[in-house]
Amino acid sequence: MKWVSGLVGVAAIGAVGYFAEPALQPLLFSFHSSAETDAPEVEPADPAVAVEDELAVKESVPEEPAVTEEVAWPEAPEWVAGLTPEQLPEKVTLKADLPITVPGAKQPMVISSGVQVMPVRVEGTDLVVSPLAGPLEGKLPVMATDLVEVLGGEPPAVPEEEPVVAETETPDPLMLDSITPAGDSEPEMAENGAAEEAEEEPATAEEPAAESGTAIVDAMQASIKAGDVKEFTFDQVVSWEAGDTVERDGVTYESGKAAYKAETIFGVKTIEAQALIQGGKVIKWIWPNSGMEIQ
Question: Residue 241 burial (CB < 10 Å; 0-12/13-18/19+)?
Fold first, then answer.
């Protein structure tokens, strides 16, 4: 009976402590071990931060160079296969990395995408190119370059070949003397030679007959008497002179000069005026030096 009374006493003390000290309640009814209660709380990871960390890891891993053969390039136009080396442009730009085998080297030389190279020839749907420096060559699909874009999307015109003029050798006069038979052959050759020279001389178009000196002077006097210019009068003219054929603004004229006396700030001076004549009529009067028209 003593142990029963002891248990009752312990239970009574526990009940008093439970209601008297609320802070002890979690300890009395906790089923976690001491190791779990002492471990620090871990906050759940942010999903956005986790994605950023994953992308950063992917960017840090270097990508392998692109292999040209594995890319599904579009088919080249049919006219590309018929291009000759003369029709190719000076430079094309690569759209993919191009490995080129270097003699004696263990690893191929890789020309990066975006580098300009020199097109050498077209082999079917492939284009053989060469770096701008060195005799090495590499091959890749035509559409892996900007060849079609450089040519404007259409085949270039085929360069026209210049006609070959056959050269004729001039016979040696001594050989002619040795093979020319006696008789009428020499005069006949002389006549033929004269006829050939006459044919070689270009025919010159006949120029219209120039106005005579008298006709030019008459045209100038008629123009001044008619008052075509106000700068001077017929009475001021001291001399009339027929000139040569001249060209002004792409037009050919007969010309003449009239010298007249005029009062200037330096006193009385003799001044020349030039007449431009067509069809026996003065078209206009000009100052000989400046070419400006006289009113």
Answer: middle
The residue count of the chain comes to 295
- Say which residue the tokens 């006549």 belong to: 191
Mean pLDDT of the region 264-290: 87
Tell me the residue type at 79. W
The number of CA neighbours under 13 Å toward the Cβ of 114 is: 1
Write out the chain in H/E/C secondary structure.
CHHHHHHHHHHHHHHHHHHHCHHHHHHHCCCCCHHHHHCCCCCCCCHHHHHHHHHHHHHHCCCCCCCHHHCCCCCCCHHHHHCCHHHCCCCEEECCCEEECCCCCCCCEEECCCCEEEEEEEECCEEEEECCCCCCCEEEEHHHECHHHHCCCCCCCCCCCCCCCCCCCCCCHHHHHHHCCCCCHHHHHHHHHHHHHHHHCCCCCCCCCCCCHHHHHHHHHHHHHCCCCCCCCHHHEEEEEEEEEEEECCEEEEEEEEEEEEEECCEEEEEEEEEEEECCEEEEEECCCCCCECC
pLDDT, tens digit (0-9, with 9 covering 90-100), for 82-128: 999 999 998 999 999 999 887 788 888 898 999 999 899 999 989 99
Q: How far apart are CA 31 and CA 158, in angstroms?
A: 94
Q: What's the pLDDT score for residue 196?
A: 52
Residue 145: count other Cβ atoms within 10 Å of its Cβ: 24
Task: Please state the pTM of the whole predicted model.
Answer: 0.34
What are 33's two structure tokens?
A: 């071990």
Task: State mean pLDDT over 221-250.
Answer: 91
Determine whether 47 is exposed, middle or buried from the number of CB atoms within 10 Å of its CB (0-12, 13-18, 19+): exposed
- Cα–Cα distance between 171 and 282 in angstroms, integer? 58
